Automatic annotation (TrEMBL), chain A:
SUPFAM superfamilies: SirA-like (SSF64307). Belongs to the sulfur carrier protein TusA family. Residues 5-29 form the UPF0033 domain. InterPro entries: TusA-like, TusA-like_sf. CDD domains: SirA_YedF_YeeD. It comes from Cytobacillus kochii. This is Oxidoreductase.
């Protein structure tokens, strides 16, 4: 199962705040796809995922100041 | 004039570049101390203060630059810094942060920046100038911490070095976890400058060195101070509407340089795009900008002027200002992030109970 979180246009730290609450709503093993354009989140999202023990299964830049990251819940 | 233009722009561009690539965000750093119990950015700030402090006091010792701490306008510093701290959370970045985010193309930061410039000018030469003067005239005679205790500045610098060293050592000894990063698409210098994630402590050393470099460069044009953001930001607007060239100084080119440097960094790393904020973010940015301009003018400095420069000059204004900026960000962070989440959490538990 995958869930997509669209946080384009939101500034730091809201992408992270939203991601933390969205991951609560999915089951262990499911994936959360986050689309974001906040530069600071390129650091804070993977860092949070790693520290919380989730798995990052995809992480790439889509274009100018636009990224996607997929986090699999532990 | 030409010298001012060139050295100011270069120093600013270096700072803007380093802050953009290093993600050097003090607002985020102060906020995360509270909401994520993460002190890394605060330690990074301490590193930058140490680097600048050693350098500047050495330059003073050598007679190259000259600094008098003056008196301590305690009421303005405490109240102004607290208001500034609230403002930077709403605006999504401190004064410097707002300048460099504006260079990344965030239009919300353009709004915040404009409100900040207007309010700073209103406080310095506008209708609120008498209020500003009134509050700033409530002072204590001694601003230098060392002079208060009647001992050398170097004792405080050594103490700060030891404390910072201890905190950094403890932080670096923590077990490392691998943080996933984007696949590198570049190599060599281009990778290092435009792609690689910079360690905040490395960024901090660079910021400290740039802050140090600012002193002799600025002094050479007759402006005896280091990095400063608020007064120069107001000066731009004052110059534009009044047309008096006396408002132009090294600091004006410094802040314009931050914008340019950050734009180069963002463009080079494909992180520049004009981004329009939603309605709520736009309004918050505007209000935040006003509070920043009001607070920083009253306190005689922002998170750079007081938090980075006056702290390394070992003044009460710097350290007490920094403390109250942090308290302001925590207060705002509680209302903006912590309380809404608690409410959401308690609402979901009540709805579950109802089922």
């Amino acid at each position: 199962m995958q869930k997509t979180l669209e946080v384009m246009g939101q500034v730091c730290p809201f992408p992270l705040v939203e991601a933390k609450s969205a991951i609560e709503s999915i089951q262990s093993g499911d994936e959360l796809i986050i689309q974001f354009d906040c530069t600071q989140a390129t650091e804070s999202l993977p860092r949070w995922a790693a520290e919380a023990g989730h798995q990052v299964t995809n992480y790439e830049q889509l274009g100018d100041a636009a990224w996607t990251i997929t986090i699999q819940k532990k | 004039m030409i010298q001012m233009l060139i050295t100011g722009l270069i120093c600013g561009a270096l700072l803007g570049f380093v802050m953009q690539r290093g993600r050097f965000c003090l607002t985020g750093g102060f906020r995360d101390m509270f909401i994520a119990k993460d002190n890394r950015m605060f330690y990074a700030l301490l590193i930058a203060i140490c680097v600048q402090s050693i350098g500047v006091f050495t330059l003073i010792q050598l007679g190259i630059i000259d600094f008098t701490a003056g008196n301590f306008a305690w009421l303005g510093v405490i109240f102004g810094s607290f208001v500034f701290g609230i403002g930077i959370v709403l605006a999504g970045g401190c004064a410097t942060g707002t300048w460099y985010r504006a260079g990344e193309g965030l239009l919300g930061s353009w709004i915040a920046l404009f409100a900040y410039m207007v309010m700073a000018a209103v406080m310095k030469t506008g209708v609120l100038a008498p209020l500003n003067t009134e509050i700033s005239s409530i002072t204590l005679p001694e601003n230098s911490i060392a002079a208060t205790f009647g001992i050398s500045n170097w004792i405080f610098i050594i103490a700060l070095l030891l404390i910072t060293g201890g905190l950094v050592y403890r932080e670096l000894r923590k077990p490392k976890i691998a943080i996933p990063s984007l696949k590198p698409k570049r190599t060599g210098l281009s990778h290092l400058l435009f792609e690689k994630r910079w360690h905040p402590f490395v960024t901090a050393i660079l910021v400290g060195l740039i802050a140090l470099l600012a002193w002799p460069l600025s002094a050479a044009t007759g402006r005896m101070f280091g990095l400063g953001i608020t007064t120069p930001s107001a000066n731009i607007l004052q110059y534009l509407v009044i047309g008096d060239a006396a408002f132009i100084n090294w600091g004006v080119f410094l802040v314009l340089g931050i914008f340019i440097g950050s734009f180069i960094a963002a463009k080079g790393s494909k992180e520049f795009r004009f981004r329009m904020p939603d309605k709520k973010t736009g309004i918050n940015s505007f209000i935040g900008g006003l509070l920043m301009g009001f607070g920083a003018s009253l306190a005689g400095g922002c998170s750079i002027g007081n938090g980075l420069v006056m702290t390394s000059m070992m003044t009460w204004q710097g350290w007490i200002g920094l403390l109250f900026i942090i308290l302001g960000t925590w207060t705002a962070a509680y209302f903006v992030y912590v309380r809404p989440q608690k409410r959401r959490a308690s609402q979901s538990t009540t709805s579950q109970q109802a089922v």
